Amino acid sequence: MSMDTDRLIQSLAADAGNRAMPVAPVLAASLLVAIPVSAAMLLSTIGLRPDIMTAMHNPFFDLKFVVTLALAMSAVAVSLHLSRPEASAQGWILLLLIPVAVLALAIGAEMMVPQRQPMMRRLVGNNAMLCVSTIPLLSLPLLAAALLALRRGAPARPALAGALAGLVSAGLAATLYAAHCNDDSPLFVAAWYTLSAALVAAIGALAGAKLLRY
Amino acid sequence: MRGRDDEWTDLMRSANAGDTVAYHRLLKAVAPVLRAAARRGLARAGQPVDQSEDIVQDILLAVHLKRQTWDPTAPFAPWLFAIARNKLIDALRRRGRRVFVNIDDFAETIPSEPVAETLPPGEVAKHLEALPPRQRDVLQSIAVESASIKATADKLSMSEGAVRVALHRGLSALAARLRST
Questions:
Q1: What total of structural domains would you count in chain A?
Q2: Which residue of A has its CA nearest to B23?
Q3: Is B101's pLDDT higher than 80?
Q4: Does A6 touch chain B (CB under 8 A)?
Q5: What is the pLDDT of residues B142-173, one digit of tens each?
Q6: Is residue A14 one of the residues assigned to a domain?
Q7: Any chain B CB within 8 A of the CB of A21?
Q8: Closest CA–CA distance from residue B125 to any residue of chain A (Å)
Q9: Closest approach of chain A CAs to the CA of B46, in angstroms?
Q10: Is residue A147 a contact partner of residue A212, using CB atoms and an 8 Å limit?
Q11: Residue numbers of the domain that contains A120
Q12: Nearest CA in chain A to B34
């Protein structure tokens, strides 16, 4: 039994009506399913910080959400770009500098205003360990959803695409965790949120190298 | 090559709009180019060129299953050659070679028809045997015996819709099996 190429082409043409959905709407849909799952994980365990209503008047509390959402959105854009076979990472990867720039500006702003606590105290924070364990845990449903959606793509570099899926999920998970976290200093965010995101990106890269090959 | 690339892009746009004949023509048109590139890649890696047909079929399956990643506002050829390059590198790695494939290898290639010394493609057929029975029977009927969807449905006492589903799942399973070897 043999299947020559002409016959394979015939069967591909017979299957022409069956075209998978593009990656972008699938990624959006799967993240919209996973976000409530991660949110429920947060709310059913450590919950929101009790003084969240007053914290919202602190611009440095609000800036955490700007940084984490900027990370999630730029990572979504880069991962969609990288899901195309002919895409190169050059240029697009610079989008990831947006959250870095926001964070740098926030650190600069914090330096300008007088602080009650010394710099080291703000950097170390109250609960760094909770931060680096909770963000990766909340990331897991989001990472699974992102990888599942990106499997529809055809990335030339599956590990890199997986790392970006990790940054998408870490950005969203960090947005959720920020509503619990009572460390509002941008220095804390730069140290511990970044470490958490790097951890999730590494998990994403390992998973992506296996799951996103086509 | 400008004319050829534009023609491919037009055919793929028509295919996306539901024109099966255009899709068939496109695949027929790109196959000889992919074949020549695969032979060149094998030769450069010091591998026997008679295995090129397996690589061509692997590329065509990936093109088919990943065509939603093509941006209709972009030219088709760079997208095609990126997939072909990825699959060729994969195939050479599986044969134990670490090689660099130049994307220009494809653009400059002269199309090649199947030649007498080419081995019959064995990989796809081998994996076909291992598919779930229904997918295997449908693919056997359509891809090996060249039956239509309607004739296959009558022969296997299935609805045409079920044949279409089994065909698509069978093709996806074939691609997954080729990837994991």
A1: 1
A2: A13
A3: no
A4: yes
A5: 988 889 999 999 999 999 999 999 999 999 99
A6: no
A7: yes
A8: 6
A9: 24
A10: yes
A11: 21-46+58-211
A12: A5
